[in-house]
Every structure is written in structure tokens, then in C-alpha cells.
Specification:
two-stranded antiparallel sheet; 8 strands
Length: 292
């Protein structure tokens, strides 16, 4: 009797229908476990990620208003200033083709700006001396390491590779040029890092200017929809020339902002009345540490 029941049980559990049902139940359990992980455990993370992808915040500076003394004499006011900006309008394009298009656009834009006697904003931690040699702007080792951290996309100085920590200013420029395709290959049949010549096809001055702007664009990170300033407080002639050529300058536009003006330079009221400016890398690090 027992053997007969045992034999029937074995036949039952080894039948195709039972095995198929077992497989279906196993898959259902896996799906339920995955659904629990996504909805319950990681729900807040994916919700925040979705919001970041659908909501784009843009900072629009507002005029700060006028300040008068007790005799109604004007001490400080705002003046409208036009800036040349660029946005990344090729988010889905292949990297090399994207780099080529942005570099061509920047070349044309810089030529228009300089043709009207304006200059690009040059906020970069590497400069060229009178002999054309690349040097770090700061001699402080800590500031250099923080710049290298940002240049090589590390989250902290500790994550820098040993060879990255000892890079010269020229080597950093060459590495960034390769990342942004500012240059060309000496051997078209061998497109490797070894055959890439930085700034090939550009003058050293123009190639370096394009690099500075590309670096600032890259620092936007995933917020590549935010405009990067190429030149501030440009003349009306520059603004008009840029707007006339907009069909050839994809992503380039003229943005109006406000510049703080102090009406009595003799007394230098800015430390008393207040002034604004960009925070430095060191100040930002100290602020982040204090904020926890």
C-alpha cells in the first residue's frame, strides 16, 4: 500500500504539468521579488531619478535693485549686459561626431566674438605664459590636485591614479584635447591615443580657447541642457553678429543678464553694500564639508 502511494506521488511530482507549474511559480516568485525590490526598497531612488530627468531647473539671475544714500544719491545699480552662451544640442549623437560639431561651432563663434573686439571668458586653472608654455595657475599643490580631480572625472582626490597626480599642465591639456576631439590623428588608418595630436588643425591659441569652453561645458555633467557662457558683457555688434549667424551656430544664443555697478569708485562701496561672484573650488569644498 505504501509503495503504491509512493509510486503515485513520484509520478505526480515528475509529471510535465507539475514541473511546468513549478517553473511558472518560480518565475512568478522571481518577478514578485524584483517588483518588491524596485517598488519598496529602491522606490524613493527611482522616483527621484525620474523627477531629475523630467524636471530641468535653470537659474535666472534677477536684478538686485538700486541703492541710494540718505540724500537720494545713487550708490549702486544694475546694468543690462549681453552674454554669448552655448548649449549641448546633440545629447543623443555619437561622441566623436558630437565633439566635431561642437568644436566647429565654437570656432566660428569665437571668431565672431574676437572680430568685434570682445573676448571669451577665460576661467581655467591652466594658462599659457608668454612663451606659449602651459602652466598651472596656482602653485598650491592642494588646488592643483582638486583641479586634476575634476579634469579626470574623479569624485575625490584619493581616487586619482598615481600617474594622474603627477601630470604636467601640458599633459592635462593633451588629455583633455583627446577627450573633446580637439585635434586630429597623424595616421588616419590608426586612430589610437598614441597617434592623436592635440590641437592639430587649430592654432595653439584657438585650440586652447575651445578647450576652456569645452571643459566648462563638461562640468555641467548630466545638466548639459544648461547654457555655458562663452563671453560676458559683449558689445551690441557682437550680439547682432551672433544672432545673424544663429542658423550656422547650433546651440549658441545671446542671453541677457545684469551687472552690478557702483557709482562712486572713490569710496569703493562694494565691500559695504555687498557683491556677488563665482565660488572657487576650494571654497566649494569647504562649504560641502561644513554642510556634511
Amino acid at each position: 500500500m505504501f509503495d503504491e502511494i509512493k509510486e503515485k506521488f513520484i509520478k505526480f511530482i515528475t509529471s510535465r504539468s507539475v514541473m511546468l507549474a513549478g517553473v511558472i511559480i518560480a518565475f512568478a516568485c522571481v518577478l514578485l521579488a524584483r517588483l518588491f525590490y524596485l517598488q519598496i526598497i529602491m522606490g524613493d531612488y527611482y522616483k527621484e531619478t525620474a523627477i531629475n530627468e523630467t524636471i530641468k531647473d535653470k537659474y535666472i539671475p534677477a536684478p538686485r535693485g538700486c541703492i541710494y544714500d540718505r540724500n537720494k544719491n545713487l550708490l549702486a545699480h544694475d546694468e543690462r549686459a549681453d552674454s554669448v552662451t552655448i548649449e549641448d544640442v546633440y545629447p543623443d549623437m555619437k561622441l566623436k561626431e558630437k565633439n566635431r560639431k561642437i568644436n566647429e561651432t565654437l570656432l566660428k563663434t569665437i571668431e565672431i566674438i574676437e572680430a568685434n573686439n570682445d573676448e571669451i571668458d577665460f576661467d581655467f586653472d591652466i594658462v599659457r605664459d608668454v612663451s606659449g608654455k602651459y602652466i598651472f595657475k596656482s602653485e598650491n599643490e592642494s588646488d592643483i590636485l582638486k583641479f586634476l580631480r575634476d579634469a579626470y572625472g574623479r569624485t575625490s582626490v584619493k581616487e586619482l591614479k598615481t600617474e594622474e597626480k603627477v601630470k604636467t599642465a601640458k599633459q592635462v591639456v593633451e588629455d583633455l584635447c583627446y577627450s573633446y576631439s580637439i585635434g586630429d590623428y597623424t595616421d588616419p588608418q590608426n586612430k589610437s591615443r598614441e597617434t592623436f595630436e592635440a590641437m592639430k588643425g587649430y592654432s595653439p591659441e584657438m585650440g586652447f580657447k575651445i578647450l576652456v569652453i569645452r571643459y566648462r561645458m563638461a562640468k555641467q555633467g548630466f545638466q548639459n541642457y544648461l547654457a555655458t557662457t562663452i563671453a560676458s558683457k559683449v558689445s551690441e555688434e557682437t550680439a547682432a553678429a551672433i544672432l545673424e549667424s544663429k542658423d550656422q551656430l547650433e546651440g549658441v544664443d545671446i542671453t541677457s543678464s545684469y551687472v552690478r555697478m557702483y557709482d562712486d569708485d572713490f569710496f569703493c562701496f562694494s565691500p559695504i553694500l555687498g557683491y556677488t561672484g563665482k565660488i572657487s573650488v576650494s571654497e566649494l569644498d569647504e562649504f560641502n564639508k561644513a554642510a556634511g
